[in-house]
Amino acid sequence: MDDWRSRPVLFLAFLAPGALWLALFFLAPLAMVWLLAFGEKAGPVAIDITWTLANYQAALDPLYLKLFWKSFWIAALATAACLVVAFPAALLVSFASPRSKPLLLLLLVLPFWTNLLIRTYSLIAVLRGNGYLNDGLGLLWQVLRFLLTPVGLAGLAGDRFQPLELLYNDAAVVLGVTYVYLPFMVLPLYATLERLDRSLLEASLDLGASQWRTFWSVTVPLAWPGIVSGVILVFIPALGTFLISDLLGGPDALLVGNVIERQFKAANNLPLGAALSFLLLYATFAVLAARAWHGARAARLG
Amino acid sequence: MAERAPLDYGKRWSLRLWLAATLVFLYAPIVILMAFSFNDSKRNIVWRGFTTDYYVKAWHNAALIEAFGNTLVIAVLATVLSTVIGTLLAIGLWRFRFPGKAAFDAAVALPIVIPEISFGVALLVFFNRIGMPTGLPWPLNLAPIVASHVAFCFPFVTVVVRARLAGFDRSFEEASRDLGASEWQTLRHVLLPWLKPGIVAGALLAMTLSLDDFVITFFTSGPDTVTFPVKIYSMVRFGATPEVNAASTALILVTILLTVLAMRLQNPARRPS
Question: Which residues cross the membrane (chain B) (predicted)?
Fold first, then answer.
């Protein structure tokens, strides 16, 4: 590696474009929002930076804290669901034959190449009252009723099929987040499971441990770095989601992301939105710091 | 039942079933969406027969087509710019040491990790504050969106290119210089050929991110700079129609086509045999 002073012109040619872009279109906008959070509305559009803490105080109101709590739970549930769905799938792909492996992996991550909005929208048709899932359930209901009628138990199935309320509630949001971010969980899990030293699994099985015990005591600890990466990759975007809750959630299914969006787009309370946005950022940093701390501890313990 | 090795997870039926169910979960909604874009029914629920009417309708929806064009132009410009900026930065970070490098590294990774909504609202505030002139002629009016897309794409390019640089054998560079090649010749004939797969992969990633982006664009687009996802969003809010399905199908196909094309470019040596 050269010292930058040895070729200052070359150094600038390589780094300046990126540094400038980052400063202008990332750091400066963030700094503006950071300042706005300490501002007061001085007119319809004008905002004075008065270093007031009132916006953070308002953002820490129980009303918004509850919202953060709810966003946290929805993100946590969806992350757990992603992990449960993705782990067996990633395990199978990492053990698949070399010929089918790339194809299976591609199939699992290909939806990532489809627009977030379109994928969210595609769920609406599946989940809504007269959507495909309810149609399928209705069909099942008819079969069940048909089977129960001869034995005189048709009454058990009820007179009419009641479509389930699958859309516009919190469960739909959890499902939507799981659906959208599943590829983010598959990739890091696959990457660690692929590199995993299989002789350790064999040793465990040879020494008489059951498959179940081998899975929990050997496979999972070895795959831990991948699990942590996957959890972070899903949890952070899930925490700040606003599109999924906007389209799939009910009228009361507001998450932090939706409230931030409203402050900036509709409610025009920029200082409050700025404070909420930075609280979300700080929460993200806390997650990342916990991960770094965890990584450092794991490295120390060897 | 045939004997199988205890570690042969690839042959376990329970796992295979799980993977199959996962794939159904991932693909069923998209496949249904695409299939029903050909459905001859307004209500979009029951299959009434095959039609391409909604594609014709979408094609004649001038606002939709304009939005589609905007999305493609933005993606191309953002890809080119972020590939150049990201690659230069990766080489610079690989080659030079300078004070504050650790902090700079962290700052470059930041756009990758922060929640999109925080980034989006920051750009909204920024472009309002600097008083971006409105009513500029096309495609100049897309500049704020392109600049924003580059800001979140180029760090990804840097990450991918740096991963490729990590495997570069420095002695090639030294040999090239010892043999009298200039800085430029070394870069052009030694380093860049080695980096090419990384650069192509980075460009592909940048293009996908740009085409897929909704959140950042939603906050940086104005009334006359609507992109395809933003347009579809406003259509979806009025209700799901087959026309939205048709337009979405078109975008899915374009993205897949571009992805396949880029993958081909990446491995030209692998001929289909």
Answer: 17-38, 72-94, 106-130, 142-161, 198-219, 244-263
Tens-digit pLDDT profile for residues B54-63: 888 888 888 8
Of A4, A111, A201, the CB nearest to B30: A111
ipTM of the complex: 0.85
Question: Tokens 């989006």 map to which residue?
Answer: B120
Of the CATH numbers 3.50.50.60, 3.20.20.70, 1.10.3720.10, 1.20.1740.10, which one belongs to the domain with range A62-128+166-301?
A: 1.10.3720.10
- Angstrom CA distances, A257 to A6, A170, A282, B20, B68, stand at 47, 14, 14, 33, 26
Alpha-carbon dihedral B151, B152, B158, B159, rounded to 10 degrees = 160
Report domain extents, chain A: 62-128+166-301
Quick one: pLDDT at residue B93?
A: 92
Contact A121 B115 (CB under 8 A): no
Closest chain B C-alpha to A302 CA, distance in angstroms: 24
Q: How far is CA A261 from the centre of its chain?
A: 18
Please state the rounded mean pLDDT for residues B5-21.
Answer: 81
Per-residue pLDDT tens digits for A160-189: 677 777 778 888 999 999 999 998 899 899
Between chains, do A118 and B110 touch, taking CB under 8 Å as contact? no
Interface touch A114/B255, C-beta < 8 Å:
yes
For the record, the structure tokens of A260 come out as 């931030």
Residues of A in contact with B252 (CB under 8 A): 114-115, 118
Question: In which band, very low, low, confident or very high, does the pLDDT at B3 lie, cut at 50, 70 and 90?
Answer: very low
Q: Which range scores top for mean pLDDT: A8-12, A85-89, B57-61, B170-174?
A: A85-89
Contacts of A15 (CB under 8 A, 6+ apart): B88, B89, B92, B93, B96
